[in-house]
Structure formats: structure tokens, C-alpha cells
């Protein structure tokens, strides 16, 4: 079941984000991997609006049903976000990172705009799903949830929270998937090395806080592409270029207590787990205008 849902998410994401196929193709051409299926997906991420009938408490039910376990919480004061990560039922599946906007921390005007859309969803929509029916779940994850926003509302939200604007248009579309680099061949198995490869092929990286985001323990390194701008159709047929989704790269170093393990015996459980608020804070900006202006 989980396989079906993940495949549905990945196929829509790959259609929408040209960098995904372009990066996978560049990796095959360079001989880094034999085929796209060789990629280890470190994690996928969703964004949502923190209103009572939606938000993390709603979306997470889908993945808890498929065996994911809720782990640590993260707070982003300035961006007005909360997030949690979820450990998969088996290491062959990606971790999941879900964030939500703390609506009540926004101005009354922004709250009114957001709730004018989210109030169309009267009750928690996940409660109405048969979670064992993956077709139903797939359709739900790619459904509108609320009416198509107006460009004026999108822009008013963007002025206050770029995250809010992203969610009002993109809903539950996958925000990113993440290529694990630590098991790739020598030269590509660090974020630094992989970033060099990406830039040599013309991919544009998010440089908020530096291109490599490093956790204080030095064991989790991350980077990401800048989201490509895509033509979006708003209410009344108005069109405008807005940020879509992006691709992330993660290097999880072996924990100090397993440093003596021979490389071929190193498994996911021997590496740094979880996420890092300081890294995440900057990765969110992959869809923000300060970064996307470099990709459009
Ligand atoms: C998520 C940003 C954080 C990570 O791995 O820390 C993140 C987002 O942009 O929605 O992906
Ligand atoms: Ni991420």
C-alpha cells in the first residue's frame, strides 16, 4: 500500500519538477548510478495550513496508518511554522517531514484570506477516506481541497508569508524528495562533492545561509536546488509564474560509536537520524523569492 502511495506522489512530482528527471539523467550519464531506481530517497516533505480540520494532525493520519512513527518536533519562530518528522516502517522507505503554518500568528487580514479557502473544508477530510484504498488516498493527495485562489490573494499572502502563498496554490503536492548522497561513489558521496557535480551541470542551488547546511554535531549535511518558476493559472484564468517544488540532497555521516564499522556494513541505523531546525529553516527558502529569482 505504501509503495502505491509513494509512487503516485513521485510520478506527479517528477512531471511537475523538470529538475528531477534532469538530475537523475545527469547522474546516469555521468555513471554515478545505473538507473533512476538506484537512488536512495532520504525523505519527502509536505506543507500544510495549520487550521483545526487540516494541518499536520490531519495529513499525518495517512502515514501513521501505513506504519510511520511520529518523531521529533521543530519550531520556526520567524517563519511561523511547526514541523515533525516521521520514521518509516522499514529503512527501504523514505522518512517524511511535514510542516504547517501557525495561522494564528499571522495578521488578521492574512488569516481571513486563508480561512476563506480552508473553511470550504468543513471536517477533517482524511477521516472520510478509506486509507486501505490507495487509489482514494492518491486522488486525495492530488486534489484541490479548496477553490483555485485569486492572484490578488496569492500576492497578499506572499507579502506576509511565502509559505502561505505556496500552500494556498500548491496544496499537498510533494514539496521535495531528497537524494541520499552518502552511498554514492567516491567524489559524489558528500554534499560538497555532489554540489560541485550539480553546479557543473548548471543546476542552481539554494545559498540561503550557505549552499551546505550543516547540523551543529556536524553529522547531517543538506543542500537543495532552487524551485523552478512555473506558470500557474489563478481564478478567472489569470496566469502568473510562481515557485513550484525543488530537490534536496542529504549526507548523513556515520555516528561516532560506529566509526570502526567497515563501510560495507554501514546501514541506515548507523548514521545520523532525524532533521535539524537550523538546516530546515534555510531549506524552506528554496521556494522563496530571494532564491527563486536566481532560477527564473
Ligand atoms: C521543508 C524544508 C525543511 C529539511 O529537510 O530539513 C526540510 C519545506 O521546504 O517544506 O526539507
Ligand atoms: Ni527536506
TrEMBL record:
Top-level taxonomic group: Bacteria
Keywords attached to this entry: Dioxygenase, Iron, Oxidoreductase
Keyword Zinc: no
EC number: 1.13.11.93
Record SMART domains: DUF1338 (SM01150)
Coiled coil spans: none
Root EC class: oxidoreductase
Cofactor(s), names only, from the UniProt record: Fe(2+)
Stored Pfam families: HGLS
Cross-referenced InterPro entries: HGLS
Protein family per UniProt: Belongs to the 2-oxoadipate dioxygenase/decarboxylase family.
Protein name, UniProt field: 2-oxoadipate dioxygenase/decarboxylase
